Fold this sequence. Notes:
- By secondary structure, the protein is of the alpha+beta class.
- Helix content is 45%, strand content 13%.
- Strands 1-2-4-3 form a four-stranded antiparallel sheet.
- α5 runs antiparallel to α6.
- The longest helix is centred in the middle third of the chain and has 25 residues, at 131-155.
- Keywords: Oxidoreductase.
Amino acid sequence: MTTELKVExxxxxxxxxRHSVRKYDPSWKISDEEIKAILDDAILAPSSSNLQxxxxxxxxxxALKEQLLPIANNQQQVVDASAxxxxxxxxxxxxxxxxxxxxxxxxxxVTAEVGAAxxxxxxxxxxxMPVQKLKEIxxxxxxxxxxxxxxxxxxxxxxxxxxxxxxxxxxxELFSIPERxxxxxxxxxxxxxxxxxxxxRLPLEExxxxxxxxx
Length: 215
């Protein structure tokens, strides 16, 4: 076994070139297949007990975008970008535990016995948690998959901007989203019409402490 690390230089380039873009070419269309490829990369993100609580609504219909616009505080990228992707989290994702472990068994990752035991552990453990804790888990996992989605898009030449500025209740009403699902964010996806603004970051020594914490 080699002792050398495998360094992916392109990743360093992707994370440094990704900026939040708010101006998009409204004439540019991203195919459904391209969006699926980006989402395929996104869902490789980690999640609590691999329950993958994320769900996505891909909004490409112009009329629906117009309905979404005021709900998203009239952020123009909602209609100009090729797609707006809503990320939502399933707070009852543990109900899919058996299915997930069946896929793992079919792929040869676990035996049927191990899969069944792991599924039972997840279902029993998560179903007994308070709703607030399940919401927190869904939001954390939703944030992980959202960041991966944005990096996957950038790696394919597209730009994005995450949006937390929208009215969740009105969004729920528009899409008839059950209470089981927690809204995470909206992400505009498309071809930039203007470059995103570069932003400064706090120096590392201001945000990192070693072996302890002082506020």
